[in-house]
Each structure stands twice: as structure tokens, then as C-alpha cells.
Amino acid sequence: MAWPIIIAFPPPASVFVTGMSIFSLTMASAGISEIRGKNMEYSKFRKSSNPSESEKSKQIYISGKRGMQIAYTPAFLAGLTSLVFLPHNDDIRYLLISSALTIHFLKRLLEVQFVHKYSGGMALDTAIPICLSYFMSTATMVYAQHLTITQGLPEPPIDLKFPGILLFLLGISGNFYHHYLLSRMRSSSSSSLTNSESDDDKKYQIPRGGLFELVVCPHYLFEIMGFVGFSFISQTLYAFAMAVGTTLYLTGRSYATRRWYQSKFKQFPQNVKALIPYLL
């Protein structure tokens, strides 16, 4: 018996889910682009973060806060809809993955409203693709779980849903805590570790507290834990593909973030890793 079948449901008879699984793995290329310095449009580390007047005239700009609300709301509604309006209320795995996804994006929306600090705007044509990505990944994960029930696919021999719940709870809690630390850092008006090159750069500081003492991006580490938790709860091949793609992308983002801090702060501790304490 091949190892994927031991820990995952057999692939459902769905060209759509198969295609989305393959597409999720392409997030690895985005991670490689981050390492090479080609940051996403919304990244604060993007070199061309200040568009020219001609570029501005061709785009519709909204606040960063509004942009992230647009990005997360449809995914939250997709998860909520799967709980309220779709069947399978007697299937524990379906209820768990739908609930976890709903909680995940509700937490993101609450962070946008009450935790995160935004200093810039976002182009609408950047917010919309992010929105579609989150919505499609959430809807596909729920749909793949739906197919395991309607197509009568056999349960994997190894049941990972309870370790998945633990990983999800650990991931969402750790991610929130380190986002809170980042928000406090951005709220601080001065620090001995601020960069002196420009007024804009003075808004950034070397993060302190929690796992920031060991890695630059503990919030990404816990985000990865959350997605691995999704995959363990669901145990569909799509959920595993999504976890792998997310892990590779956030690993690239972590490397890019660490390189940015090294370039801006001469005092940056060299023992602080990018993502995994003492290792990576």
C-alpha cells in the first residue's frame, strides 16, 4: 500500500479537485521568487513599493485594512456557508474542517480590525487575486471533503484528525500571539534598534519577545502548523497539497524577511534563524 493511501483518502473522481491540488503546489515557485527578491505586490519588503504617478493613475487604490478585509471575507463566508447550509452534519471530519476554516478566517478578520497596523494602501487589482485565492482554496478544501462522503471513499488506515485539531489550535494561537507582538512593535514610536536611513524605515524594528528571539517569522511557523493541522483533519490529497504549497511559500517569505532585516539593521542577531529555531 502506497504511503499516501495510508494517511489520505483516495483521490476523488473530480478533475477540478485534481487540478486545484496541482495548482496548490505551484505556490512553491512563489516562495522561490521571494528568495530571489521578487516580492509580492502587497509586501512591505517590495523594492518598488512606491508606484509612479502614471502607475497610480491606472489602478484603484484602497487602504491596506480594507484590502485585507476584501481578501479574507469571502473565504470566511465560504467556511460559514459550509457549516450552516450544506449537509453532512453527522460527519465529524467534515464538521471539523469546516469549523477550522471558518475560525481561521474569522480570526484573520478580527486581527485586521483590531490588531494589525497598516501604513500604506493596496491596489484593488492586488486585493482581488488574493481574495480569489483564499476563497478558492477554502471552497475546494470543503468540496474535497464533501466528495469523500458522497463518493463513499474509504477512511485512511491512519486517523490524523485529532493530532490535526491539536496542531490547528497551536498554530492559530501562536500565530495570533506573534501578530500581537508585531502590532505592539509597530505602535512603538521609538527604539534603539530602529533603522536610521529614512523616516519610513524608522517604522520598522527588530521584533522581540516570544519566538522572535529565535526566528524572524514565528508567525509564519505557526501559520504552517495551522495548515498542516487542516491537512491532518481533512486527510484529503488537496489539503496535503495545500499544506505543502503554503509551507514552501512561507519558507521563501521567511528567508526574504530575514535578508531584509539583515540589510537594514547592523545589530541584527546572526543566531536568529528565518523560520525554524536553531535549524532554518
What key phrases describe this protein's structure?
10 helices, 280 residues, single chain, mainly alpha
Nutshell version of this structure?
The chain is mainly α and 280 residues long.
Strand content: under 5%
Number of strands: 2
The value of Rg in angstroms is 20 Å
Shape: globular
Structural class: mainly alpha
Can you write the helix and strand succession as a string?
A: HHHHEHHEHHHH
Q: What is the spatial order of strands in the main beta sheet? A: 1-2
Spans of 5+ residues with little confidence (pLDDT < 50)? 189-202
> Could you give the distance between the termini?
33 Å
Characterise this structure.
With 280 residues, this protein is mostly helical. It has one domain (27-43, 53-264). Helices cover 62% and strands 2% of the residues. It is built from ten helices and two strands, in the order H-H-H-H-E-H-H-E-H-H-H-H. The radius of gyration is 20 Å and the shape is globular. The two termini are 33 Å apart.
Secondary structure layout plus pairing:
Elements: H1 3-7, H2 15-25, H3 27-35, H4 53-57, E1 61-63, H5 64-84, H6 92-114, E2 121-123, H7 124-150, H8 161-187, H9 218-234, H10 237-264
Antiparallel strand pairs: 1-2
